[in-house]
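Q: Please design a sequence for this.
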């Protein structure tokens, strides 16, 4: 019985996609870095580019190597673990750089404008802190 865990044709197509995506991502990151005036933003772009440009080829390479072993072999499990860790690392760094860090920067720059109103003596008189007469 022939067991194919990840077909070779899919790996080849994914490899071509990875080459094209990596080239486009590299050139767009390079252009973004040349336009950035903030040093911390430049470091974030370098970190994102490094993570994506390393983890994507590692995923493709490991998926291509997975055809050498059967799923029962420990080496196959190790290759599958490397693919998972590479994908997970790329997702975590991407989320941190593209989602979490800009939100924390925006909240830090917001200053006093986003604070909840402090309850006043009107609250004691039966009014709610938002100032509504409900």
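A: Design:
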């Amino acid at each position: 019985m022939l067991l194919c865990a990840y077909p070779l044709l899919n790996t080849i197509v994914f490899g071509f996609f990875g080459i094209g995506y990596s080239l486009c991502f590299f050139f767009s990151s390079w252009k973004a870095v040349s336009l950035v005036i903030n040093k911390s933003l430049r470091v974030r772009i370098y970190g994102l580019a490094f993570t994506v440009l390393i983890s994507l080829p590692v995923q493709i390479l490991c998926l291509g190597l997975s055809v050498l072993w059967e799923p029962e072999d420990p080496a196959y499990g190790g290759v599958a673990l490397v693919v998972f860790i590479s994908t997970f690392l790329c997702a975590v760094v991407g989320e941190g750089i593209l989602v979490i860090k800009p939100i924390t920067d925006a909240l830090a720059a917001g200053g006093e404008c986003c604070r909840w109103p402090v309850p006043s003596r009107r609250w004691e008189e039966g009014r709610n802190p938002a100032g509504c007469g409900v």
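Q: Thanks. Anything notable?
A: The two ends are 74 Å apart (CA to CA). Helices lie at 8-35, 39-65, 74-110, 121-124.
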